[in-house]
Design brief:
single chain, 3 domains, 5-stranded parallel beta sheet, 39% helix, elongated
Length: 501
């Protein structure tokens, strides 16, 4: 099991009741976990507070559906492809719980002092009554999460007889011989099951009572454990996974099924990418990523989700954008370290390094097997061209293309000193104007690393637009003006115009 880190080390406020008698005398009132979440969500919506601040692109689709489900006190299943923030949204639900919850100190199941569930808590209350100690549990300790695997058993989820307790002398009929599973231990909290279809069908049956009758049964014991829990699950669409399915009775018991989706726009993809990516700056080297390079990275993922050469059933996760962005930055940092530069700026030549970060995240169609590199190269070129057309003024591009006469040649690539790029801009004012059209200011024009990134982008965009020729070389590329065709000879319209024999 994995769960949000337990924060039991956080001491509760000193003014909270410490005994059952004090709790009864206070204004605290017991309520179910779903009503608790509903109450806090009502306050958040009324205040205009964003309950899911780290999730982008769901403001008008997924989040309203989820809020409706929680207001209706429903158990929820998220259905969507990989990398669609299903787990993140599930874990964010913890913030809708009360910060502190009173339980019977010594009880096994976060027992409600007014209505205990476990035998140990019942015994404590019967013995000590108003003097029963009260423990306060932080909201982070009220979330449990299980990744469904084929070997998951009923004992893992619900519970089993503890042979050690039996060996200590207890009778099998004694409820205290039981070892509770994950679901009972999530009592008065949130229990999440990730990848629910991977759970064996016979094990899924064990969750039926949890969702409808709100209880669990362990082995042949004649006991009923009334469990108060919000059950949330995630799953991939059934047409994608062949590992299993969600049984119909279980699907029927979930109150709401919510479909997630990938970012609808490149801007949203960039927001997610920049939030999730980790950029490591080496000592003495700063990192700066031009907007067009970040946009190329996000556009690549967007195009992959539309490509007929990519298996769309498996999906193209946002993790592709995050990983590619991190590799671009790493490649720029590596170049700066080798060349003793003090600033790392990703360039077009760094796109050649994203193949390892793309592998496993983009699955080509069966008829494209063995052509993964070709498919990726095509997607990269398409992304660069699309961003170039959206970013550059056509008049500036035409001026740069015309400035590249047949005798103008420029070598670009990872091994070219950034000063060479700066000198080219100085000698070619048309190129400087194109960079200003990209948003470069006076200070940017004095930054050689930033200028180098902009020059490569403009030249590559002109090449993909068929306005410049490009020769691939081992460490980069050579850009040159396109050869202008010679004018055809004038037509011969009269026999007298023929040259003499």
């Amino acid at each position: 099991m994995s769960s949000i880190s337990q924060t039991s080390e956080i001491p509760p406020p000193a003014d909270l009741p410490t005994t059952f008698g004090e709790l009864k005398a206070s204004d605290w009132q017991p309520t179910s976990v779903k009503e608790e979440i509903r109450r806090n969500l009502v306050v958040a919506i009324a205040e205009g507070r964003n309950v899911f601040p780290n999730v982008f692109g769901y403001e008008d689709t997924v989040i309203p559906s989820l809020e409706n489900a929680l207001l209706a006190c429903h158990d929820v299943i998220f259905l969507g492809e990989r990398g669609q923030a299903k787990t993140r949204m599930i874990r964010s639900l913890v913030e809708l719980l009360d910060e502190w919850l009173p339980t019977v100190a010594g009880g096994e199941l976060h027992d409600d002092p007014f209505s205990p569930t476990s035998a140990s808590a019942k015994e404590l209350l019967a013995t000590h009554q108003d003097d029963t100690p009260i423990a306060w549990v932080h909201r982070s300790a009220r979330f449990a999460e299980k990744l469904a695997t084929p070997d998951t058993s009923i004992a893992d989820l619900i519970g089993e007889v503890d042979p050690i307790k039996v060996a200590e002398g207890r009778y099998l009929s004694d409820e205290l011989t039981m070892h509770y599973g994950l679901v009972p231990r999530a009592n008065r909290g949130i229990f999440a099951v990730n990848e629910l279809p991977d759970l064996a069908e016979r094990i899924q049956v064990g969750l039926l009572n949890v969702l409808e009758e709100r209880d669990v049964q362990i082995r042949g014991y004649r006991i009923r454990l009334p469990i108060d829990v919000l059950l949330v699950a995630s799953a991939n669409p059934e047409d994608y996974t062949n590992r299993g399915r969600i049984i119909t009775p279980l699907k029927d018991r979930f109150g709401s099924q919510i479909r997630t989706h990938y970012p609808a726009t490149t801007a949203i993809e960039m927001d997610i990418m920049e939030q999730e990516s980790r950029t490591f700056e080496a000592e003495g080297i700063s990192v700066r990523v031009p907007d067009f390079m970040a946009e190329i990275t996000a556009t690549l993922s967007q195009l992959a989700r539309q490509s007929p050469h990519v298996n769309q059933r498996s999906g193209v996760s946002v993790r592709l954008s995050v990983s590619n962005f991190e590799v671009l930055v790493a490649s720029a940092v590596r170049r700066s370290l080798r060349r003793s530069e003090d600033e790392a700026v990703p360039r077009i030549c760094d796109l050649e390094q994203i193949s390892p970060s793309t592998a496993g995240k983009v699955e080509t169609e069966t008829f494209e097997e063995g052509r993964d590199e070709e498919v990726l190269a095509h997607l990269v070129k398409s992304a660069v061209l699309e961003v170039f057309r959206d970013s550059c003024d056509p008049r500036d591009c035409t001026a740069v293309a015309e400035a590249f006469t047949e005798d103008v040649v420029f070598s670009a690539g990872d091994d070219i000193d950034i000063i060479a790029y700066h000198e080219l801009v100085t000698e070619m004012p048309e190129l400087a104007q194109a960079l200003r059209g990209l948003g470069y200011e006076d200070g940017d024009m004095e930054n050689p690393a930033l200028v180098a990134s902009g020059v490569e982008f403009v030249l590559e965009g002109l090449h993909l637009s068929k306005r410049l020729n490009k020769d691939a070389v081992k460490a980069g590329a050579v850009y040159r003006g396109r050869t202008k065709p010679k004018p055809p000879p004038p037509p011969i319209s009269d026999v007298d115009d023929l040259p003499p024999d």
